[in-house]
Design a protein that fits this description.
The structure is a homodimer. Helices cover 58% and strands 11% of the residues of chain A. Chain A is mainly alpha-helical. Chain A has a two-stranded antiparallel sheet with strand order 1-2. The mean pLDDT of chain A is 86. Chain B binds a DNA duplex through helix 4.
DNA sequence: TATATTAATCGTATATTTGCGATATAAAAT
DNA sequence: ATTTTATATCGCAAATATACGATTAATATA
């Protein structure tokens, strides 16, 4: 019954959905903003800026990382994160492509 | 304990996350594709094109609609759906804005 | 009016996500 | 060597999401 059927869709659809899922939480959007503003890589500073516990932030960072949107390197006793621009750009392009593809088909809508 | 803290973030962050969440499933990406290809509005035709039960598709349509990405009107005994281009465009712009805002801050990354 | 047809909703089972405290790990400082 | 500092991971509780069959609702059509 409740088997998830993601495998039944195309790779592109799955990839796009996974990318969207990584962005599908305000905390993760906020983390990306922080990483961009402080253009040097940031670690637990994020914890101070977000209204979440350290373990929760760490978990969100892990999700962003496993989705490929950020990179993280160990820097002594701390971890340094930054945005993976290439992946971000790639997904942005893919998203724009989908959007434009849809858009060019027809602007007319019946409802 | 497990109270979701979405309210603790800004409206823009919440809106973007909600938009992303609507796209965060391959079935919903696929539905948008179908709605774009058949530029006339489509109802249960989607069910025939997706590997999902009618009730499941209906649920995904409801989510896309409540996120504002599609419109739906009752047309006799059937429902006609189409993409809400305005909302889509607005979210695309907001997403691009975030992306560009981030991008312009600095291309350099330390990791 | 009875009966298809179409789609939404309900109920339910299961899976996943979110969040936090507690604990573990690992490097730096004392 | 011990302690501090910074971060990841574990374990758990609660909330959400996913999926489907069954039912309901609403409109056509016979």
């Amino acid at each position: 019954m409740a088997i998830h059927k993601k495998e039944a869709f195309s790779k592109k659809e799955q990839d796009l959905a996974e990318f969207a899922k990584a962005l599908a939480h305000p905390a993760r959007i906020a983390i990306l903003k922080v990483l961009a503003q402080h253009n040097e890589c940031i670690c637990g500073e994020i914890v101070d800026l977000l209204p979440l516990a350290q373990s929760t932030v760490s978990q969100h960072l892990k999700e962003l990382k496993s989705a490929g949107l950020i990179n993280g390197v160990v820097d002594g006793p701390r971890s340094c994160y930054c945005i993976n621009w290439k992946a971000f750009e790639k997904f942005n392009a893919e998203f724009s492509f989908l959007f434009n593809h849809l858009k060019l088909t027809k602007m007319q809508s019946c409802c």
